[in-house]
TrEMBL record, chain A:
UniProt keyword annotations, A-Z: Membrane, Transmembrane, Transmembrane helix, Transport
Localisation: Membrane
UniProt key word Transport: yes
Lineage: Bacteria, Bacillati, Bacillota, Bacilli, Bacillales
Protein name: Cation acetate symporter
Pfam families in the cross-refs: SSF (PF00474)
Chief localisation class: membrane
Transmembrane parts of this sequence: 6-25, 45-69, 75-96, 116-135, 147-169, 181-201, 240-264, 276-296, 359-390, 410-428, 434-458, 465-484, 490-515
InterPro entries attached to this UniProt entry: Na/Glc_symporter_sf (IPR038377), Na/solute_symporter (IPR001734), Na/solute_symporter_VC_2705 (IPR019899), Sodium:Solute_Symporter (IPR050277)
Family: Belongs to the sodium:solute symporter (SSF) (TC 2.A.21) family.
Membrane topology of this protein: Multi-pass membrane protein
UniProtKB/TrEMBL annotation, chain B:
Transmembrane segments: 20-41, 53-72
Pfam families: DUF4212
Domain Sodium symporter small subunit: residue ranges: 10-84
Xref: InterPro entries: Na_symporter_ssu
Species classification: Bacteria, Bacillati, Bacillota, Bacilli, Bacillales
Keywords: Membrane, Transmembrane, Transmembrane helix
Protein name in UniProt: DUF4212 domain-containing protein
Length: 552, 98
């Protein structure tokens, strides 16, 4: 047992103890605690919770590496994942908050007055959240496995037990405050190494201001080496692929059930607007730093690793070669490692940074605790979404409407444990690359939920038949395009499987509009309810007249 | 509950919707439009970073964050102008009771 092992273990155990302590302290006592944290979370803290919920293992471990490898083309992820909050906060969240339900399928079912629409939405929630959580659990398995020096399988199992325990116990209330703590852990862990790297490379502790000079220097190196330049656009895919991916990630963000439900945990529409603003500020701290990480790491690799002789490489390279995530093959046999002979996995950039920059055991341990916080907080939110869809939308609203609060709470807890265990078992042997599965989950959300919610809130003429047809066509087109692009080599304007959401969303919106217009309009009561969403909660629209509510 | 003038309610909806359209257009401009003209925009730079790359890595995100805070603040001000913040409604009720 070396010092690194002990430091990592202590940091991870200490942060886990903190999360469990918070979950126990905020144990859910009523259904509304369990699903929406009694709707009493202040916007700033809700913003942090959204940030932790949102930023997954893929953001924490993979984003910087993706930008480093794709250069400018990787920025589609940065703009897409942040831009989604504009759509969410301007077009959906406050209105959904006013409608006042527990879950997204419940909104769709009640707004469109269709049990079948609610069922499709519940099933889509489960598919999307489940797919997404497999990535989180296998990510946490890799981190725990590498840092505690245990097998990845055991690492994944540790993650499963922990997530099942605290999400089942605390429900949304426990998770909210746990996620606030997890946000703080993950952002501190993310910022410390990049600030140290900025000081080492540019003598300026603010990486956001100083990585420009590193980018200029890399431009010269790129030109000397004659490789495709880092900042030159569309070297990895077409311009339309960039735009389609950006749209898919934006619309998917606005349609992800586990993120939307976080806006149900605040008191008012006003608090929902502020939550969105705070959330993007907290998320922005990480997303603004990822390109700096990418630039610094690429620069260090180009100047300190590439060009040196093979038997004189920095010590940290060996550890990553052993994991199979870094490959240093001397293709031309000259004993010197060229830049083109270096093959690096997206996932190692952030995790290897403390070693690349020689930051010591404490920072490496902190990094591990931060990566775990990112994986666990997102997985926790996803599990709540799955459990709500199963216990509330399917069990309570469709199977047993007479169920007592205790019974529904029990079903919610059991489904969380079951879903976590099943996702954990799948995560032991993930069906594909993690980032790819995550992109598919976004494409599915943008093809099903985004159109249903957008039209549900902003077009009162949209009806049950329209939304059912829209969601099914959106799902079908998205899935068909993913498979056709991935396995059939079929592409339109160079758009590959990760950009499929643009076709799914367009098809779903068109279908919803056409079918709605061909079928009778929704009842006057529902149309009034939709008109009511135009106003804040103090104003109520009823029978063609507008009323100011009494203050309670 | 008191009835209010439908014109006033419509004015509220119109101003909020117009602002949202303005915010979304700005958001669209700094992301999609800049990407579309990325090659042409790379000729000048900010802090040593070519403009299109700067917008992708920092400019767009900062604009998004500012838009969200401006929206939250301006919406609060609109609520106040229309006299529908909870504080204002409490005051009115007290005035009626006196």
């Amino acid at each position: 047992m070396d010092a690194q092992f002990i430091v990592s273990l202590v940091l991870i155990v200490a942060t886990f103890a903190l999360y469990i302590g918070i979950a126990v302290y905020n144990k859910a006592r009523a259904t509304s605690d369990f699903y929406v944290a009694s709707r009493g979370v202040p916007p700033v803290f809700n913003g942090m919770a959204i940030g932790a919920d949102w930023m997954s293992a893929a953001s924490f471990i993979g984003l910087a590496g993706t930008v480093m490898i794709l250069g400018y083309d990787g920025l589609a992820y940065i703009m897409g994942w942040t831009g989604g909050y504009l759509l969410l906060t301007f077009l959906l969240a406050p209105q959904l908050r006013k409608y006042g339900r527990y879950t997204v399928p419940e909104f769709i079912g009640d707004r469109y007055n269709s049990d079948f629409a609610r069922l499709i939405a519940a099933v889509a929630t489960i598919i999307i959240s489940f797919t997404y959580s497999i990535g989180q659990l296998s990510g946490s398995g890799v981190v725990i496995g590498r840092l505690l020096e245990v097998n990845t399988v055991i690492g994944t199992l540790i993650g499963v037990v922990l997530i099942a325990f605290y999400s089942a116990l605390g429900g949304m209330k426990g998770i909210t405050w746990t996620q606030v703590a997890q946000y703080l852990v993950l952002i501190i862990a993310y910022l410390i190494p990049v600030i140290f790297m900025a000081m080492q490379l540019t003598q300026n502790p603010l990486p956001w201001l100083s990585y420009g000079e590193v980018i200029s220097e890399m431009k010269e190196i790129d030109q000397e080496l004659g490789i495709s330049e880092y900042v030159v656009p569309f070297t990895e895919g077409s311009k339309w692929q960039f735009i389609a991916l950006m749209f898919t990630l934006m619309a998917g963000t606005a349609g992800l059930p586990h993120v939307i439900v976080r806006f149900y945990t605040v008191k008012t529409m006003k608090a929902a607007r502020w939550s969105g603003a705070w959330a993007l500020l907290f998320i922005g701290l990480l997303y603004l730093s990822a390109p700096a990480y990418a630039a610094f790491s690429r620069f260090i690799l180009m100047t300190e690793v590439a060009g040196s002789s093979l038997d004189n490489l920095p010590a940290w390279t060996q550890a990553w070669v052993d994991t199979g995530r870094l490959s240093l093959a001397d293709g031309n046999g000259d004993g010197i490692l060229q830049w083109t002979e270096l093959v690096i996995s997206n996932d190692i950039v952030v995790m290897a940074t403390p070693e690349i920059a020689n930051l010591g055991v404490f920072v490496i341990g902190l990094m591990a605790a931060g990566a775990m916080a990112a994986a666990l907080s997102t997985a926790g939110g996803l599990m709540i979404a799955i459990s709500a869809a199963l216990s509330h939308d399917i069990y309570y609203r469709s199977i047993n409407p007479k169920a007592t609060e205790q019974k529904r709470l029990a079903v919610g807890r059991i489904t969380i444990v079951l879903a976590t265990v099943i996702a954990g078992l799948v995560a032991l042997n993930p069906p594909g690359a993690i980032t790819q599965i995550v992109a598919w989950a976004f494409a599915l959300a943008s093809g099903t939920f985004f159109p249903a919610l957008l039209l549900g809130v902003w077009w009162k003429r949209s009806n049950g038949a329209g939304v059912v047809a829209g969601m099914l066509v959106g799902l079908g087109v998205t899935l068909a395009y993913i498979f056709a692009a991935k396995y059939g080599g079929f592409t339109i304007l160079g758009i590959i499987d990760t950009g499929a959401g643009v076709f799914g969303a367009t098809a779903a919106i068109l279908t919803n509009v056409v079918v709605s217009l061909l079928t009778p309009p929704p009842s006057q009561k529902i149309q009034d309810e939709v008109t009511d969403l135009r106003y804040p909660e103090q104003i109520q629209y009823k029978n063609g007249e507008v009323w100011l509510r009494d203050v309670k | 509950m008191r009835k209010i003038d439908p014109d006033k309610a419509n004015a509220y909806y119109r101003i909020r919707t117009t602002l949202i359209c303005v915010y979304l257009s700005i958001g669209f401009l700094v992301s999609f439009v800049v990407v579309f003209f990325a090659r042409a925009l790379s000729s000048f730079s900010i802090m040593g970073i070519p403009f299109h790359y700067y917008m992708g890595s920092q400019g767009a995100i900062l604009t998004f964050i500012i838009l969200l805070f401006v929206n939250a603040k301006v919406s609060d001000m609109i609520d106040k102008r229309f006299g529908i913040t909870p504080e204002q409604m409490n005051e009115k009720d007290q005035a009626v009771n006196q």
